Amino acid sequence: MDLISRIQRHFRDSAALKLAVVDELAGPIAFAAEKMVQSLMAEGKILACGNGGSAADAQHFSAELLNRFEMERPGLAAMALTTDSSTLTSIANDYAYVEIFSKQVRALGHGGDVLLAISTSGNSPNVLTAIAAAHEKDMTVVALTGRDGGKIRSLLNANDVLLNVAAQSTARVQEVHIVILHCLCDAIDCMLLGVEE
C-alpha cells in the first residue's frame, strides 16, 4: 500500500468536494447565519446537537460562539446538548436514548431560539426527535446533513434551513460540515461587528 498516495487522495477528494458544493451552499449558509444573528439579537440562543463526530462539531461550534472565533467580541449564547453526561445518561436510562436531545430542547428552548441539528446521514433518531421538539417550541432549525438529506429533509419547514452536503462518504461530509460551521461563525461575527470586507 502506498500511504503517501492514499493521504494525497484524501486531501484532493476533500478539496474537490468543497469546491463542488460551494456555489450551492453559500446562499443557504448566509441565510442560516442571518437566522442565528436574528435569534441572538433578540436575546435568543443556539442549541446544537449531533452524535459522534457530529457531537464534536456541535461542541466546536458552541465553543466558538461562547468564547470567540477569530475576532474579539462578547460571548454569544450557544450550548451543545452533547456534553452533560449526567443529563444524557439519566434521560437514556429513565426514558430512551432517542430522547436525549429532545428533552433538553423542550426544557431549554424557547420561541425564537435556533436548533443546530447535525447528522451526516440525516437519519439519526435522536436528532429527528430534537427537531420535532424544536418545532413544538417555535424554534428555527438549521440542519447539517449529508447524502440526500435523509429523513431530516422532510421534517424541515419553510422557516428552517437545510445545509445538505450531497456526498456519500461520512468523512468527506464531516469535513465540509466543519467549513460550514466556520463560515457560520465568521458570518455571525461580521454581521454583529459590522465587518464590511
Description:
A 5-stranded parallel β-sheet has the order 2-1-3-4-5, with helices on both faces. The mean pLDDT is 97. Helix content is 57%, strand content 13%. The protein is an alpha/beta fold and 197 residues long.
Short synopsis of the structure:
The chain is an alpha/beta fold and 197 residues long. Helix content is 57%, strand content 13%. The protein has a single domain, classed as 3-Layer(aba) Sandwich (Rossmann fold).
Rg over alpha carbons: 17 Å
The main pleated sheet reads as: 5 strands, parallel
Residue ranges: pLDDT <50 for 5 or more in a row?
Answer: none
CATH architecture: 3-Layer(aba) Sandwich
**Count of individual helical segments:** 7
The CATH class:
Alpha Beta
Choose one word for the global shape: globular
**SSE sequence, one letter per element:** HEHEHHEHEHEH
Number of strands: 5
Label the structural class: alpha/beta
Mean pLDDT: 97
- The CATH homologous superfamily name equals Glucose-6-phosphate isomerase like protein, domain 1
Report the portion of residues in β strands. 5-15%
Count of domains: 1
State the CATH topology: Rossmann fold
**Multimeric state of these chains?**
single chain
Distance between the termini: 46 Å
Sheet with the most strands: spatial strand order: 2-1-3-4-5
